[in-house]
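Technical appendix A lists one of the benchmark inputs used to test multi-chain prediction within the project. The record comprises two sequence entries:
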Amino acid sequence: MTRFEVTILGANSAIPTANRFPTSQLLNVNESYYLIDCGEGTQIQLRRNKLKFQRIETIFISHLHGDHYFGLIGLLTTMHLLKREKPLKIIAPERLQEIISIQLRAGGTQLGYSIDYVPLVFENGYEILKDEKISVKVLKLSHRIDCAGFVFEELEKPRNLQKDNIDKYNLTFEEIKNLKNSIPIIRDKKELLEQLLEEKEITRTYAYVTDTKALESIIPFIESVDLLYHESTFLKNETKRAKATFHSTTHQAANIALKAKVKRLMLGHYSTRYLDLELLLAEAREVFENCILAIEGKTVKV
Amino acid sequence: MTRFEVTILGANSAIPTANRFPTSQLLNVNESYYLIDCGEGTQIQLRRNKLKFQRIETIFISHLHGDHYFGLIGLLTTMHLLKREKPLKIIAPERLQEIISIQLRAGGTQLGYSIDYVPLVFENGYEILKDEKISVKVLKLSHRIDCAGFVFEELEKPRNLQKDNIDKYNLTFEEIKNLKNSIPIIRDKKELLEQLLEEKEITRTYAYVTDTKALESIIPFIESVDLLYHESTFLKNETKRAKATFHSTTHQAANIALKAKVKRLMLGHYSTRYLDLELLLAEAREVFENCILAIEGKTVKV
């Protein structure tokens, strides 16, 4: 199987501590890098985890609260200082572009690479990106300001021919090419395709949901995903505060996972008040057993 | 002696590394805190050094290159989330205000405290701040964009009466009050003042000079300071590069210290290329012996 894994660079909520960084994750899809959110210190965390940040092709910013993007301008500047030339795509709320531009202008900086800004569309299921490896669809979340979640889905890879079949069916060069492009060959007046190819690889899906109150409306769009990252800022005894601040509790996150029948749940965006994260994990597992904590520096295979 | 000391929060140049932060320093003058520059990660460094950042009264930003201010918006936001109400003064290039405002607006954040923005005046000797404890004067530096240095000078404290003199001169309550306000008393038709008071405390001075090419024009304004922080981004074999990028070498920094007859020199703003900072120190000492390195987490008494 090719690589499809996410490295946690920060999983704390708004107030960073001496050793817990705000939100950022690096998704590695077969050696293409996608950065999801970029809190202050993300470039330091990328270095600490020995992740080559010039390899990042696309950056997703879920919303414009600082703990999700204050590290972006520093990362963009460092990419420039390190002589990046490769274009970068940034998928973010529209206003981000002006925030970045005003700071580059103030510093007299003309980036040595181009940025392709893609404004977010806050609509469940909207396909905001499709490249050679993945399709990314938006989730419309409910926070104090516009906020998006993302569902990352691997694209099916072109299937190879089972090599034995070249001799068995006496395939021509043309036929081989056709088969790879899903055009069947004809033998004994029958079309043959599926049985000549290698088995389909499974395509994996990763859903990223933060910051938001728990939302049933996203369930159809995250159903059966392999891994769901869902914020659980608070323990369940803070349900009132979660509601007031448009965040989720452990039980709420776990209930979404349960109803959406996801394979695995990862908690994150912890309030600074919790020193022992195991409490959050234990509570979520009361509702949904296959649950893990997002921990800085850890890499999770999807 | 009261406290007058500077804690180094970051001393690296533009590109941060896994364990070297960009520029920031905290000046403690008798328990009043002044923050000088605020690179990305400054709030994390303040926490790591157990410095209560709500005690900061004034923030100085030397110029608008990111390694000197990208950490400011995060710090301001965290101060707000931690319920700061005390006003904050920010002394910075004028355009900073719009950069901060646009980000607060985008996040829907209304700070719970007020910010008093004081636009920098780039003029040698211009007094940009005078409060109860210090006077701060500007140095006009020469960088790729407008950049200021700062000279922090302790104010003379009101001098106390030597207690023996109350009986000796049979002082009235009124006379005691006058003496403290430098109004002499009359005895035998003579004015008496100095000899009745305690000795003057020495006032200390700290000069902060980064980012700039080495500038003789600032020498009259930093003459004899107790501690000079002068950037030395490069070793002397990179003199050409220093000139091209408007930075200083070790020898240039040390020569300024020598000509200005400062008591002590502290180097900083090291290029990321130098893993062994002792090389920079050794070179500077060839010219000016009383020289130290700015090291993250270290506190230097002025």
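The mean pLDDT of chain B is 94. Chain B has two domains: 4-157+203-301, 164-196. Comparable benchmark entries are summarised in Table A2.
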